[in-house]
Each structure stands twice: as structure tokens, then as C-alpha cells.
Amino acid sequence: MPEVPPTVDLRLDELHGALVDPALTSMNFLNEVAGRYPDAISLAAGRPYEEFFEVEAVHRYLDRFCRHLAEDLGHPPDQVRRTLLQYGRTKGIVHHLVAEHLAVEEKITVDPEAIVVTVGCQEAMYLVLRALRADPRDVLFAVAPTYVGLTGAARLVDLPVLPVASGPAGIDLDDLVTQIRRARAAGRRPRACYVMPDFANPSGASLDVPTRRELLAVAAAEEILLLEDNPYGLFQLAPGDRPPTLKALDGDRRVVYLGTFAKTALPGARVGYVVADQRVGAPDGTVGWFADELAKIKSMVTVNTSPIAQAVVGGRLLEYGGSLVRANEREIAAYRRNLRQALDGLAARFPPDDPVGRWISWTAPAGGFFVVVTLPVPADDALLERSARRHGVLWTPMHHFYDGGVPVRALRLSVSAVTPAQLEQGLDRLAALLRTELWRSRADRAVGPAAEETPESLPRLDRRVSGAER
Amino acid sequence: MPEVPPTVDLRLDELHGALVDPALTSMNFLNEVAGRYPDAISLAAGRPYEEFFEVEAVHRYLDRFCRHLAEDLGHPPDQVRRTLLQYGRTKGIVHHLVAEHLAVEEKITVDPEAIVVTVGCQEAMYLVLRALRADPRDVLFAVAPTYVGLTGAARLVDLPVLPVASGPAGIDLDDLVTQIRRARAAGRRPRACYVMPDFANPSGASLDVPTRRELLAVAAAEEILLLEDNPYGLFQLAPGDRPPTLKALDGDRRVVYLGTFAKTALPGARVGYVVADQRVGAPDGTVGWFADELAKIKSMVTVNTSPIAQAVVGGRLLEYGGSLVRANEREIAAYRRNLRQALDGLAARFPPDDPVGRWISWTAPAGGFFVVVTLPVPADDALLERSARRHGVLWTPMHHFYDGGVPVRALRLSVSAVTPAQLEQGLDRLAALLRTELWRSRADRAVGPAAEETPESLPRLDRRVSGAER
Q1: pLDDT along chain B (470 residues), means of 10
Q2: Sequence ranges of the domains in chain B
Q3: Which of residues 260-299 of B touch A (CB under 8 A)?
Q4: A21 interaction partners in chain B (CB closer than 8 Å)
Q5: Cβ of A73 under 8 Å from any chain B Cβ?
Q6: For A376, which DSSP code?
Q7: Residues in chain A closer than 8 A to B60 (CB atoms)
């Protein structure tokens, strides 16, 4: 809070209501805690691994993309300069390289004209939600717990987000159908369901292939879109084939695919994209891409995505022939190492026969950045505060990923951005916190699971726990 | 329109209403015409001059900014890499350099914490409008004709924009007061008035200093904010002191200042900013910057502005000690040359005693990119189409800058992005078009001014015409 006299020029309660919504304020709170404890080990932020960052690569990628324009596309020098430095195409300048990447790596075949390159995946989500929210009847569904950036974007366009149970499969399809029909019966208009099928943020859960196919069938039957967000798909724990994305299985354009290069290229480029190949019919009978409607909105939000930033991402895609798996070989190895270390480290620190360990369980994700730890006490903001102050370790209280302010007995660990030494120390500190706190809870006679306070999804997620029936 | 079968997945009339609003579709139409006639000379796009663009400068600026982080701010190498390449501060990483620039060049003293660095000025506008539009009563005022990016952003947040007459002073303050009070009497809540005090887009009009002071007084008396947009302030026609911005005169934080580096650094960086030093009071008694509320919204729209793109702009600011006048010496000379050439060229082609020239007048802006030419016939989209097809010259029909679809007998020439030879040829082609069309109109007996079809602001602007009483 700046040191200003108490004069007030504007009143918060006369600004847009989203500004006091937990979806927007929780991000601020978490950043603020992190800012106050800069020396704490952060198992909170879902950032990519930093060891291999190099500024020199930015220069190299820029040059690589300029060579591509000149040599592959035959642009004269003044056109290369204009492409990189002038205002440009609203839908982007690396759309053809994104399409090539999707073909090479995800078996998604898409016309480059159906792609909008955006300022990170966040803008992609925002544009889609803004387009879909036409009137107050509209509602969106999302598997709970939900990425807070989705909920926040929905708040800004006044679009309610109705939670769908995750269940053992990562999405409870019966619940989805029930929720859709209940909403319709109440006069609402279901537009889409948001889902992260691979190593979801925050749950870490993934959908198996039959579930993916069933979800597509439900979407078709219920006439809703699926918003597939896939930031972590490349980062599976065990080498081998990756399951197809929903978009790769999408035979009838049900899926709007949200992509980002923040985790696979550089967060600092802030480049993402949306594949929106749906056909939009206008009252005059003309038909165009949904991508073109999103571009109209984008032209009024950010005009276009920095072509310099796009060129950086484009250069990286070119350098690896569109394969982000190859581009991220070292990073993928680091994520596997960290995730294994985290899971082994939790098992070592909380054995099932331990007086504290018996109350603690955690997910065993098949990849991605996140492990969810379930406690017998609420992992609230006060606990995080004590964790940072007394124990020097940061994590994310899971209640931030649920609407409604119900206490949640779980926390999210992010293992992507730490070194092995930091991770080890972070787990030590977490163990010290939990031993202290559970002792305290026992003294308060409040220990033990209280199922009624835990969102439906978490106990089920716990079935994936590494320590079997714990 | 892509060649797709007529199957339809989504209906345009079930998407957000802004998508069929002229504010969003006109940009598309204008781009589409330009795309169909790539060989036409464009006096349409308000783009900066390209002659001095160099890719090498991007590399140099990036390195300059990294040196600044390391040497001036003492950041170790891993922190420099993290600042440039990782997720970062929502409000930006060049805020201190923006504040320095504003102090050096605009005599605006502002706490860097009250600045949000944005994805171009467009995002700055969008964030401010999103924050201010809290409920359906809220309305915004804007001097007509209005920059279409403002109107489009307002549509996306469902905020009505009520036009204020420009009048001989560039803003008719009596009309502003009348409009505000009328809106209040109708139960609406006036939030702000959007204004470009320097060489406005599209009118080219500027406010003199007494008008600026009076406008601030009106804003204070009527308790509204002023949204000052200043993309062209540096580009005055005659050398000498520039008038102070509204923000420089703003004693009580009435002004939200919208800035861009698209015209003064590189459009391809897509970096702008907003100065929002208003104090926002929360119901719990805490007080914070309006900038921090805008940052909360930004975190859900674009997360942060690409730090790589910010570094490019930061490097340029550092290279010139915060002075964009010095950084743009060559560009400013080119804009002066072009604007003079355009005004002289119009005078030479349309002398007042000429059978066609007597029906044509134009503004004499004191700087900026734009000249508005008033015709005796509507400058509609069909005329633009004929101009592109038959005469090979593009311009912007002024009706796109007014709400309501009334025919407007004026067009905007943008003289910023052409070479002298292109400008000369473009004016020749425009003259050929107008001679053909006015002859045609005469044959149709439709020639001659029809004041009732011309928005109030245009005839008054014509008092500034270079050819005196024409």
C-alpha cells in the first residue's frame, strides 16, 4: 500500500465488481506473500525451469525468424523489417509455424487461418470468453478445482463459471450432463466447458483416452464447446507416447484449443494462441472462422501480439523443426527429475505409519508441474503465512482454485522452477511446518479429516495417491 | 471468407453483440479493402514512418536494457535473465524509465508505482474502461469524431460512449457539461471523458492551453475523470515549445494518462502504458493506486506485457536519456516534411477558384499524422472502394469515426507512413478521384454541401482551413 494521505479519488465499490472477487484478489494475495518473503523457497509459482535460460537465445531466435522470412518466404529486406517492427496482422505472423508444430507434434491438422496468436494463453482464454458471453443467460462449466486465470477472465466478462466434479476420471461426465441440463432447465445457456486434459493445474489430474472420447460425445450431444487448455502436455513423467489431445480427436470442431509457449519456449515472450476452426454463420448467410471473430475482439484489446515477441517464438520453432519436445529435452528431463524427487521426498518424509504421515496424502500425477497434498486441517491463507514466516517455504492453498470460500484441506506444490537442492530443502521445510501444525491441531483437538469441508473432487483425487490406501 | 462448406458450428448472433458493431467491423472492412489493393498508395493507416526501421536496433536496445539491469540496478546475471525471460511483474519492468521520460519530456511527475506498462495503448484503454464500467448506468463521453479503438473497446465492456461536440476549440465544454447533466438526469452515471488534446485522431485538432485548463475545471466540477490519450504530442509541425499535457496541468488527479511507444519507438514492440495515480478507497478503509486495480484486471487479460518487448523500448529510452524527441529527430523531420507537403499539395491541386476546388476544404493541423478533407458528397465506403480500384489510393472515410451511420462528407488522410514521392502520387490520385466523382455528382445534381448530413464538428474544424475562407 503506497504511503498516501487518505484522500480518495475513486471508490472501489464503484469500479467493476470483479476487482473484489477472490478470483482476482487471490493472485494478488499470493504475489504479495511471495514478495514479503523473498528468501522463502517457492513451491508456489507454476513457472518453467530457469537453468537453461539464455539472453543470447533471444538474439539467435530473432535472427532465425528473419532469415525464415527472407529465405523461406522470399520477403525483401524492407518487408522483413516491416513484419518485425511495424503494426501487423491481427491474427499473428507465426500462425503457419504454430500450425506446423501442431501437425508435427500433436497430430492436429488445422488451417493456419483458424489460429489467432495471442498475448499468452491468458489473452486467448479472454477472447474466447468475451466472444461466447453474449447475454446474462450464458454460463460456462469448468472442472473443479479450476485454474484461477480462467475464473478471473470469466469474472471480467460477467460470465458465471459452474463447477463440474472431477471424480476419479479427472472429469465426472455424469455430473457434467446433470449440470448442463440443470442450467438449461433454469433458463441459462450453456456455452462451453473448460478442461485441462493433461496434468491439470492445479489438480495434476489427466483424462484417459476413453474419457476424452466420451467427453467429446457429451459435448456433441449437449451442443456445447470444449475449451481445451494444454500448457503441460509435453511434460509427462514417463517417456513414451502421449495421449491425443481432445483437439486431435475432434471430428466436428467441438474443441477450441488454447495453447501457450510460456512453458515450452519463454514466458518472457508472452506468446500463446487459440485454434478456433469453428464455422460462424452470420445472419446474412456468410460463414467464417471463429478465429476471425476472436481477431475482431483482439483488435480492440491488444491490436496484435508483438511481432518481435512472436519472432522469438517463431525462431525457436524453426530451430527445432516445429518439435517442442526436442526443443525442451533438457527441460523435460528436469521436470521428470523434480516430480520424481517430490513424490519420493513426500513418501520419505511422511511414511504411512508415521504419527503425522498417516494424516497426509498426495496425488501421483503422471506429469506436469503440480502435486496436491491433502492435510487433515484447512490449508488456509493463515497457514501459508505461517509457512512463509516461520519455515521459509511457499505453496498455494487449494481453496484459491475453488469458488465459494469453503475451507479446503489441501495445498498445491509446484515443482517446476526449483533446483534439486531447493526442492529438497523446500520439502524439509514443508515437513517441519506440517509436523508443527498437526501437533498444534492435535492440541486443539481439531486433527483428523473432515470430509464435509473438503470439496468432492479431492478425496477422489486421493485415490491416485502414491502410498496406496493412505 | 475461407472456402468452407456452409455447415455452421456457431451463430454470430449468439456471440457478443460488439462483433456486429460498426466499431469492430469497420476496422476489418478497412483492412480488407487495403488487402485487396496492395498496390494502392495508402493514405489510410496511421502508421509511423518506416524509413529508419532497423532490425539491428532491436538487438542493440535489448543489450542496452540488460546492461542497465546489471550495471545501473546491480542485478546479478541470473536475475537479469529472469527479468527478461521469466514471468514478471504485472505492472511492468520499464515503469521507472517511463516515469523518467515523463519527467524529462512532459513535466509530468509521477510515482513509477502508479504506472502500468501495457500491450500498446489499446490495452491501457481497455483496462481503464473495464475498471470504470461497473454497472449498466455507467457512460463515457468522447469528443466526436472519436478514435475507433476507443469506441470498440467500450463496446466490448458494454459501456455506452456519448459524443461531445468538438467545436472550434477542439472540445465544446458547454456541450460537455450539458451532456453530463443530461445523462445524470436520465439516471446514468458519467465516469469519464476521453480526449486527445494534441493533433487528435482523426480530426487533427488540438486544444489550446486555456481550453485545457477549463476542461480540467469542468472535470473537477462535474466529478468525472479525463482519459487523456497522447500518441502524437511530439509531432508538432513547427519547432518550439509544446503545450503542457492535461496530466502536466492536473493538480488533483483527474487525468488518467494513456501513452504509447508505437509511434515513438516501434509499433512491433506493442508497448504502451497508463498513468493511473488516482487513489482508490476500499470499503475497509484502505487506499491504493488505481494502477493496482488496473493491474488486477491486466493479470486476467494478458498477465504481463512481454518483458522482451519492454526491454526493447527500455533500451531505446536509455539510449536517449528518456528523451523521445531526441530519439525521433529524423522521424519528426519526416512528419513535418510530409504534413507540409500534404497541405501545400492540397492547396496546389484544389485552388479556391477552381470548379472542383471551390467545393473542397481541409483542416490545417498544427502537427500529427492526419488531415481531414471535406467534400460536397459523402465519403462513403463505396467511394473508398472506387478510389482504391480505379485510382489506386486509400484513405479513411470519416463516418467510421462517428456512431450512428450518418453519411459524412469528409475523409481522413494519413500522411505519416509515406515517402514524399508516394505522397505526391497519392495526392494526384486523390485529385483525380475527386474530379471524377464531383463531375459525376454534378451530373447527378447532388453536388454542393449539405450541412444537415455533416456532423456538427466538421464545419467548425473547417475554420482552421489553410485556404482561409474556403
Answers
A1: 65 95 86 91 94 96 98 97 95 98 96 98 98 97 96 97 95 98 98 98 97 98 97 94 97 96 94 98 94 97 98 98 96 98 98 92 97 96 96 97 88 97 98 91 55 38 30
A2: 12-51+329-464
A3: 262, 266-271, 278-283, 286-290, 293, 296-297, 299
A4: none
A5: no
A6: S
A7: none
pLDDT at A353: 92
**To the nearest whole number, what is the mean pLDDT of chain A?**
92
Residue A45: the pLDDT is: 87
Rounded to 5°, angle at Cα A270 from B271 and B72:
60
Burial of B136 (0-12, 13-18, 19+ CB in 10 A): exposed
**Where does A58-326 sit in CATH, by number?**
3.40.640.10
The closest of A117, A122, A168 to A149, measured between CA atoms, is A122
In this complex, is the C-beta atom of A80 within 8 Å of any C-beta atom belonging to chain B?
Answer: yes
Rounded CA-CA distance A154/B81 in Å is 33
Q: How far is A251 from chain B (nearest CA, A)?
A: 12
Tens digit of each residue's pLDDT (9 = 90 or more) over A130-154: 999 999 999 999 999 999 999 999 9
Question: What are the residues facing A227 on neighbouring strands?
Answer: A194, A256
C-alpha cell read off for B307: 518483458
Residues from chain A contacting residue B260 (CB–CB below 8 Å): none
- Tell me the C-alpha distance between A250 and A226, whole Å: 10
Interface-testing mutation among A3, A12, A247, A369, with chain B (most B C-beta atoms within 10 A): A12
Assess whether the previous peptide bond of B6 is cis (omega < 30° from 0). Answer: no
ipTM score for this prediction: 0.93
Asked whether the beta carbons of A278 and B9 are under 8 A apart, the reply is yes
Nearest CB to A12 within list B155, B280, B305:
B280
How far is residue A214's CA from residue B173's CA, in Å, rounded to a whole number? 62
Task: Give the residue from B231, B422, B415 showing the smallest Cα distance to B338.
Answer: B415
CATH for B12-51+329-464 is: 3.90.1150.10
Residue among A2, A58, A81 minimizing CB distance to B113: A2
- DSSP symbol at A257: E
Q: Residue B296 burial (CB < 10 Å; 0-12/13-18/19+)?
A: buried
Whether residue B84 and residue A268 make contact (CB cut-off 8 A), yes or no, is yes
Per-residue pLDDT of A246-296, as tens digits, reads 999 999 999 999 999 999 999 999 999 999 999 999 999 999 999 999 999
The stretches of A230-351 forming alpha helices (DSSP H) are 246-249, 290-301, 307-319, 324-327, 329-349
